[in-house]
Amino acid sequence: MEKDLEKIRAHAKEAIRNAADLGFLEQIRVEYMGRKSALTAILRGLKDLPINARKRIGQEANHLAEEIERLLSERKRELGSVIRESILAKERLDVTMPGSRIERGHQHPVTKVLAEIEGIFGSMGFETVDGPEVETDFYNFEALNMPPGHPARDMWDTFWLKNKLLLRTHTSPVQVRYMEKHNPPIRIIVPGRVYRYEATDASHEIQFEQLEGLVVDTHISVANFKAVMQEFFSRFYGNHIEIQLRPSYFPFVEPGFEIFISCVICKGKGCSVCKQTGWLEIGGAGMVHPNVFKAVGYNPKQARGFAFGLGFSRMIMMKYKIPDVRLFNSGDLRFLKQF
Ligand code: FA5
């Protein structure tokens, strides 16, 4: 029987040493220590042995059981640390590695510049106002002193929709909408998208941005208008900008002007952008026509004001030296990522 115990010891030691994982070690524990193991059978059979042999074999069998338990738990600890190390090796995190870059979106140049423009006009007491892009004939033309059949309507090539609706050709209809609902004094800007049914080129788009402005009170003059333009453009371009007003015609103003600013590229000396003139045309303006005041229910003898409509897209082009207006809506990320 002692020989049997020796054999069990030798086999158990060997098996435990070779156990490669915790599952296998558990099988070995069952095999050598379980209810059906050879060692348990010896312990159970002790009662049938003579007293001396029972004592001796019992002691030895118990020692062996303790030894196997100790070997099992030592191997279990060893295997545990091997597993932990292999997990650590596999899941190692190198905190010094550069992370994967997250692509972040950003504002469109038009939105960015708009915030800047609103800031400058806001500091001069102007409120920013919005209006619909789908307009009626009345607001886009008629209330602006262009009754049906008026030849000046041809100045704006129009996208007509169903039911006499149209895509607004300028931001001027918002002047009328605002004056219908508000009394003077008025000081607003209206940035927004406008649409024209025309051939496109580097400075003409079918969809572009305008910046309308309207000031109405009792004693407003062209001098006030020029001062506002001078202040705005000098702050917008960060340079002193000269303003020139040249006579022009828009049915909703009298007198009407074209606004020229001194060239922001050559500072008035003459370059290819300003075609060597030193001046850039930037929008239309004028003193609000009495018929427009009548259309919104004001007394034209009391109300006086100026209105302007600037080519907002072209202003941004000059600020950032963008060569083609069509880039704004091209969706070309190479262009957009520069802002
Ligand atoms: C008007 O649209 C008038 N509503 C402006 C106005 C407002 C006059 C208030 C008087 C009082 P005009 O059609 O000239 O005017 O357009 C104004 C500016 O928009 C132009 O000076 C130009 O800078 C810009 N613009 C005109 N057409 C295009 C186009 N196809 N693409 C890009 N910008 C354009």
How would the blueprint of this fold be written?
Blueprint: H1 2-18, H2 22-33, H3 38-45, H4 51-90, H5 109-123, E1 127-128, E2 134-136, H6 137-140, E3 165-167, H7 173-181, E4 186-195, E5 207-217, H8 222-237, E6 243-248, E7 253-262, E8 279-288, H9 290-295, E9 304-311, H10 312-320, H11 333-336
Parallel strand pairs: 1-4
Antiparallel strand pairs: 2-3, 4-5, 5-9, 6-7, 7-8, 8-9
Helix pairs in contact: 1-4, 2-4
Adenosine-5'-[phenylalaninyl-phosphate] binds at residues 170, 172, 196, 198, 204-205, 208, 210, 250, 253, 256, 281-286, 307-309, 311, 313-314, 325.
The amount of beta strand, in percent, is: 15-25%
Secondary-structure-derived class: alpha+beta
Distance between the termini: 90 Å
The number of strands is 9
Our Rg estimate from Cα atoms comes to 45 Å
CATH class of the largest domain: Alpha Beta
Indicate the overall shape: rod-shaped
Bound molecule kinds, no repeats = adenosine-5'-[phenylalaninyl-phosphate]
Helix share, percent: 40-55%
- Tell me about the biggest sheet? 7 strands, mixed
Mean pLDDT: 92
How many domains comprise the coordinates?
2
Number of continuous helical runs: 11
Low-confidence stretches: none
CATH topology name of the largest domain, in short, is BirA Bifunctional Protein, domain 2
Order of helices and strands: HHHHHEEHEHEEHEEEHEHH
